[in-house]
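Handout for the seminar on molecular recognition.
Each group receives one record of this type.
Step one: identify the two inputs.
Step two: read the structure output and locate the region that could contact guanosine-5'-diphosphate.
Step three: write two sentences on what you found, then compare them with the reference statements printed after the record.
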Amino acid sequence: MFSLMASCCGWFKRWREPVRKVTLLMVGLDNAGKTATAKGIQGEYPEDVAPTVGFSKINLRQGKFEVTIFDLGGGIRIRGIWKNYYAESYGVIFVVDSSDEERMEETKEAMSEMLRHPRISGKPILVLANKQDKEGALGEADVIECLSLEKLVNEHKCLCQIEPCSAISGYGKKIDKSIKKGLFWLLHVIARDFDALNERIQKDTTEQRALEEQEKQERAERVRKLREERKQNEQEQAELDGTGSLAQLDPEPTNPFQPIASVIIENERKLEREKKKQKMEKDSDGCHLKHKMEHEQIETEGQVNDSGQKNNEFGLVENYKEALTQQLENEDETDRPSLESDFYGKPLPPLAVPQRPNGDAHDVIS
Ligand code: GDP
């Protein structure tokens, strides 16, 4: 009777526990098998996956945990983005290609750099020694030795577990048992230390957001100054060339996102203004008669000479093409998943990724 009551109380306590949202980071060199692992966890067939170029995320439900795993690209040029996710990560899944002995040193460097980061040191890390199905793949002990794993994790006070596995051996409920075991271990140590970890993550995330906001403002300020300098230089150059101020012709900086129709209209207006300006200059030079004749000739040609008309249309088409190309280029720039925050401050993938509703996450590893 007593044990029945105790188990009821335990069940009631667990039922009342709030859902905990946990973010994990899945990293490793390119081709290590991160995407295959992520797909397998998600319940998708993990073979023939394309290597992670940017980043993707998966959601799963595990008991009282709503887990989001960020699968980040591991190519040398995009490893720089990893650190943008450190603040919000409760733990790390580091995938190693155990069959690629030649890249063990590179793997060690990438891991070492990550573990020494102040926003990762002290957090739990699961190492998946992947591709065990491949002939000649290094076993657990060899991977530990090649990566100097013990030394690394001790130095940075990270709890660590290594699991030799094969990401392509199964998926969903039939996923490699070692991957499942590793994930359980990771969530278990996170649960044990949840409050402290959570406090650290809230603090680090707030600080990082503030820093990013400051950097964004600084970049915007630098861009503004550069624009001003450029405009100033153009004006000075125009005055030196005796062509007048360019700013008079185009006083507003061009908005790269204005509709194409307005770009065309604006270009036509510019042409019109230039024509008028030329006319006035010629008039004031006392060449009125000559100009009038020329003007009349142009007008006549415009009416009767098809090639004259075509030239005009051609100019317009060129402008349109130019505007369209410019627009597409700009849209391209904006749409492209931004991997690195560059000088113009293209946004990094958001730090606080909205969680999908509960229904989206699935309990695949239970
Ligand atoms: P990522 O760049 O780390 O995301 O690597 P992928 O998951 O894209 O995997 C790279 C290649 O390795 C793909 O062709 C996968 O099919 C293959 N691969 C991934 N895991 C394994 C594994 O455990 N065994 C074998 N033999 N191939 C794997």
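Reference statements: The chain has eleven helices and six strands. The pocket of guanosine-5'-diphosphate is lined by residues 28, 30-36, 47-49, 51-52, 74, 95, 130-131, 133-134, 166-168 (CB under 6 Å).
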